[in-house]
């Protein structure tokens, strides 16, 4: 299967990929990703990508920059954002 992009933000947006985490158990085929700003905007995007469909399947409503992302042993997401 050829590589497939998983965009968090539009091209040219002042953000970069921040923390990522693989799912487990019920979310084993999911990649959780957050973005961090490259400028002092303190905004971010937090999306979940399904590797089987190769699409973003949902986005979290948190809009702060992502600092930490983890998946617990049953496959649920733990997202921590920091606003400084």
Topology:
Blueprint: E1 15-22, E2 30-37, E3 46-50, E4 55-59, E5 66-71, E6 77-81
Antiparallel strand pairs: 1-2, 2-3, 3-4, 5-6
Q: How would you write the strand order of the largest sheet?
A: 1-2-3-4
Name the structural class.
Answer: mainly beta
What is the domain total for the residues? Answer: 1
Number of helices: 0
Mean pLDDT: 78
The end-to-end distance, rounded to whole angstroms, is 41 Å
Question: Approximately how much helix is present in the residues?
Answer: under 10%
Globular, elongated, flat, extended or rod-shaped: what is the shape?
globular
Poorly predicted residue ranges:
none
How big a fraction of the residues is strand?
A: 35-45%
β-strand number: 6
SSE series: EEEEEE
Q: Main beta sheet, described? A: 4 strands, antiparallel
Radius of gyration based on Cα positions: 13 Å
Name a few traits of the molecule.
two-stranded antiparallel ribbon; mainly beta; 84 residues
């Amino acid at each position: 299967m050829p590589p497939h992009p998983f965009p968090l933000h539009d091209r040219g947006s002042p953000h970069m990929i921040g923390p990522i985490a693989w799912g487990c158990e019920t979310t084993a085929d999911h990649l959780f990703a957050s973005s961090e700003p490259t400028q002092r905007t303190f905004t971010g995007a937090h999306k979940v990508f399904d590797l089987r469909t190769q699409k973003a399947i949902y986005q979290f409503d948190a809009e702060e920059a992502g600092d930490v992302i983890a998946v617990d042993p049953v496959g649920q997401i733990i997202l921590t954002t920091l606003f400084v």
